[in-house]
Amino acid sequence: MQIGDLSRAAGVNIETIRYYERIGVLPKPSREVNGRRTYAEDDARRLGFIRHARDLGFDLTDVRTLLALQEQPEASCEEASRIAQAQLDEVESRIRLLLKLKAELFRMVSECRKGIVAECRVIEALSN
């Protein structure tokens, strides 16, 4: 398949595919005589794995490690579990922060009397 077909199949931008090739997360494809990249189903599966991992917030270092582990089906999955737990911890931390932000924004909005800017609680809260 061509790069455009791979892009559509995996839901990944063509430039992202080229970037993944440059940094080595996706292997360099074979090329036709005219220089066009040619991808196999394995490339599509690998790209799908990468996209799903990135959607879950894993950084490229973790994606590389997870890809390497995927190639060792008999190995322990302890490292994969550790990586996923670290990502879960990070997500939970961000959720706590977002809940605090939500509470502060709710307070600011609910205290605003929608009068003049000189008396605006939103402007006052942001200024402090």
Automatic annotation (TrEMBL):
Q: Any idea what this protein is called?
A: Helix-turn-helix domain-containing protein
Q: Does the keyword DNA-binding apply?
A: yes
Does the keyword DNA-binding feature in the UniProt annotation? yes
Q: Which InterPro entries match?
A: DNA-bd_dom_put_sf, MerR-type_HTH_dom, MerR_fam
Keyword list (alphabetical) reads: DNA-binding, Transcription, Transcription regulation
Q: Start and end of every HTH merR-type domain?
A: 1-69
